[in-house]
Amino acid sequence: MPFRFLLSLIAVFSFSNVELAAKADSPNIVVIFCDDLGYGDLGCFGHPTIKTPNLNRMATEGVRLTQFYVGAPVCTPSRAALMTGRLPIRSGMCSDKRRVLFPDSGGGIPASEVTLAEGLKQQGYATACVGKWHLGHLPQFLPTSNGFDSYFGIPYSNDMDRVNDAPRGREPFWNPKVEYWNVPLMRNLEIAERPADQTTITRRYTEEAISFITKNKDEKFFLYLPHSLPHVPLFRSKEFEGRSLRGLYGDVIEEIDWSVGQVPQTLRDLKLDQNTIVWFTSDNGPWLTFNDHGGSAGLLREGKGTTWDGGMREPSICWWPGTIPAGQVSAELGTTMDIYSTSLALAGAKLEKDRIVDGYDLTESLKGKSKSPREIVYYYRGTKLMALRKGPWKAHFATQESYTGNNKLTEHDPPVLYNLEVDPSEKWDVADQHADVIAEIKVAAEAHKATVVAVPSQLEIPLSK
C-alpha cells in the first residue's frame, strides 16, 4: 500500500474519530419554558409563600441567573427569539397591530428560519416539543415541520378558542372551567383531545417529557418543555388543589415546580445528569392586570407586555452537574437567544453565515470562567426599539406605563436612563447626570437599527377561508 495513501487513510480515520469524540461529548439539552412567570414567583427568587423546593435545588446545584432576558415581552415573538436565536423583528415574528398569533392567524415561523431543533437534529439529536408552541398552528408551522421528531401540546395560548356560551368578560378567568375554552391538545399533526383537559395538562406534559427522556437515554436528545401555565386561565390537578398559601396561582406554580423536579430526578436515575444541561426560564413577565391570578415581578417594574424589566427579565436557572459549578449566582447578562447559540455550540454545530444571529455562546460564563460575551440587551415592543441596555445602563426611548392592550406610548428625547445594578426597579432617572452614557447608547441603537431589514409580519397574515 503506497505510504501517501496510508497517511491519507490515517488522517481520515483520525478526523472521523475526532468528530465522533466531539459528538460523544456533546450534552443532552433540555429547555423548560414557563408562560407568564414573574421574576418574583419562585422561592429561590424571593417569593415568601410559594414553595418551589425542586427549583430551589436546581439553583443550589447549578447557577441562578439574575439578569437573564427574553427577546420580547409577549408570547409569540419571545418564543420565536428562543427558537431562532434572533430578534423577532428579523424573522417577521412580531407586529405593531397584533402582538401574538391567534387561532384565526394564517402565519407562523418562516421555513427560512433555522430552529434550535433543526440545528440539533443535524447533529444527530432526537428532538421533542412537549407543551405550548405558539409559533403557528397550521401544519407547516407546527413543531414536526420545524425540526422536532414529535409534538404533544396545545399549539397556542390556553385562553384562546373561548366558546360562545362561556361567560363574557373576565368571569371565566376568576372561576375557570375546562369547557369554557375549546383549545386542542395535539399529538404531532393530529388533534388528540378537544377541549384539552387543562386540569391535568401539567401532569401529562411531565409524563410525556419523562417518557421521551427514557426512550432516548442511549442517544443524544433535545427536549423542549414549554408549559402552558401560569398563563390564565389557571388550572391545576387534584393533587395540588389548596396546597399553596398563595392560592390558585401558587398551586399552579407548585405543580410546575413538581414537574421540573421530575426532569433532573429522571436524569439522575438514568445516570444522564452529568451529561445533560437543563435551562429553566419563562417567555415574559407576569400578567399583572389579572390581580391574584397573575404573578409578581418582585422588585422589578411592571410586567408582561411592557419593556420595563418586569416584562422581559425572567427568573432563570441553568443546571449541569459536574460542568457548571454548584451554588453560583450570576449577575452576568444573558438572553434566551443565547440558549440557542450556546446549545448549538455545545452540540458542535456551526451557526448559519447567511443571517444575523443575536445569541452568544455563554458556556464559559456559565462555568464561571469568564464574563458573559453579551454587553447589550434590546427591548422591542412589536417592531419598535423601545429601550437598550448596555452594561448596567438602560435607556428608554419610549415607555408605556402598563400592559392593557395597545397602550399609548410616551416618547422620550432625551431618553430616560436607569442604572439597573443600582436601581433594578427603574425608579430614578439619572439621564441628566450621564450625558456621555446617553450618547454612547444612542450610537449603539443606531448601529443596531442599521442591521435590521424590514420583513413582512407573519402575525398579520389572515387565515384563508
Task: Give a short overview.
The protein has 465 residues and is an alpha/beta fold.
Helix and strand topology:
Layout: H1 3-25, E1 28-34, H2 53-61, E2 63-65, E3 68-69, H3 75-84, H4 116-121, E4 126-130, E5 150-153, H5 171-174, E6 185-187, E7 190-193, H6 201-215, E8 221-226, H7 248-269, E9 276-282, H8 309-312, E10 316-319, E11 328-330, E12 334-335, H9 336-346, H10 363-366, E13 376-381, E14 384-390, E15 393-399, E16 410-419, H11 435-449
Parallel strand pairs: 1-8, 1-9, 2-11, 3-12, 4-5, 4-8
Antiparallel strand pairs: 2-10, 5-6, 6-7, 9-10, 13-14, 14-15, 15-16
Question: How would you describe what is shown here?
Answer:
By secondary structure, the chain is an alpha/beta fold. The protein folds into two domains: 25-370, Alkaline Phosphatase, subunit A (3-Layer(aba) Sandwich), CATH 3.40.720; 377-449, Arylsulfatase, C-terminal domain. The chain is 26% helix and 17% strand. Strands 7-6-5-4-8-1-9-10-2-11 form a ten-stranded mixed β-sheet, with helices on both faces. It has a four-stranded antiparallel β-sheet with strand order 13-14-15-16, covered by helices on one side. α3 (75-84) runs parallel beside α9 and α6 (201-215) packs parallel to α7. It is globular.
Going by helix content, strand content and strand pairing, the class is alpha/beta
Total separate domains: 2
At the fourth CATH level, what is the homologous superfamily of the largest domain? Alkaline Phosphatase, subunit A
**CATH-defined fold name of the largest domain:** Alkaline Phosphatase, subunit A
- Count of beta strands: 16
Cα distance, first to last residue?
69 Å
User: Helix count?
Assistant: 11
Secondary structure: helix percent: 25-40%
**Shape, please?**
globular
Beta-strand percent range? 15-25%
Corresponding CATH architecture of the largest domain: 3-Layer(aba) Sandwich
Mean pLDDT: 94
Output the radius of gyration. 22 Å
